[in-house]
Amino acid sequence: MKITERYFSKQKRADVLFVLWAGGAALLSYSLVYALRKPFTAATFDGLDFSGMDYKTATSIIQIAGYFLSKLIGIKVISELKPQNRLKLIVASAAVAELSLVLFGSLPRPFNVFALFFNGLSLGYMWGVIFSFLEGRRVTDLLASIMGVSIAVSSGVARSLGLFVMDTLHISGFWMPACIGAFAFPLLSLLGWLMTRMPQPSEEDKALRTERVTMDGHTRLKVFRSFMPLLVLLFTANLFVTVLRDIKEDFLVKIVDVDAAGLSAWAFAQIDGVVTVIILGLFGFAAMVRSHIRVLLMLLCMVIVGSLALSFMAFNYTALHLPVVMWLFLQSLAVYIVFLSFQTLFFERFIACFRVKGNVGFFIVTLDFVGYVGTVLVLVMKEWFTPDVVWLDFYNNLSAFVGIFCALAFFGSAVYILWRYRKENGRHTDNVHVFRWGKVTEGQPSLGLAPDVVTDR
Fold first, then answer.
1. Which of 24, 114, 304, 368 is spaced 20 to 30 Å from 7 by Cα?
2. Mean pLDDT of all residues in the chain?
3. Domains in the chain and their CATH numbers?
């Protein structure tokens, strides 16, 4: 008994170290991707225009245009990416991103804005590359939760870094992104190498979460057709969520008057830090739930609540009269609960629940491609029809619509998933390997997440 307990304790410590290593490396890696992509959003570029278009809007449109084209390319690249090519792709992409930021600072204005197209083009599939190191493991929920919060916290940190570099170091808004990227590029390359040292998923991982395989064009089409009603609902809803998130992140300094609100350069990072802790707690709780179908339904309930919260705040903006900090906090919390649920846990559990032969990267990159197409279209239409829009009113009107539409789409998704699950499984019981916090039962131990056999039909 003592030998067994000693083995369990040793295995638990090894798993804890692995989660800290893998999750921490993924979180820092994607945070550095943000450092290469997002700092320019801290600059307002007041008084500048690009062929009659607001210069700040032009920078966002052109960078996102490269970003969504990268997502389109990534549907093939990420779904077919072999493990031995991951590091090469990370280093090459980061190098091109930094070079484009140097060109943004050095080329004559306003035509330097085209350099941001290549910045977006080089970084659009980085989430899929990094996530491919983590998926298909018995602790992927924990790893994905840790990585996912990088999106919530990194945007605020990148914006705060940009303000700090401009206000304290007195570097212009054109050279500020390249200065931050000069530190991010070598660190991202180093972390990419560290992630290649991770062990591959074990046979136990494959049995519990389905072995992850590359997907050629035929396989991608087959999977899409098989789950088309669900994927159409999710992709469409996430299109609007992505549009809302991008407008919030790229134009927050125009939506909120930072000086009038008395916000410091680091206020955004502090707000997003609190949001990160809350979301990590919610996802950590979901990671402890044993049934894949229950996690899927739990996540859909969460995103429905988040969507309705967005509409409620938009319709009652004047009546609520929230302080700026509280409004920013609630907006970030609602948007990121919806956005991150599909960037982290949902498709990992979806593949495991329905035994899909594929990988998470295909779903996430496709989801993002559809979303960023929407962002570009909305920004272009805004410039054509309402170039002098009041950003706060524009954002509130958009969030009111997005919240209602997404709540309905996610409810429809929940109905479809439950129907499909019951159709495929009927009333028959089936042994499903799961994990839970608590005592170790018979089987191989892991991180206090004991393998158990349950019936959840």
1. 24
2. 82
3. 2-197+210-438 (1.20.1250.20)
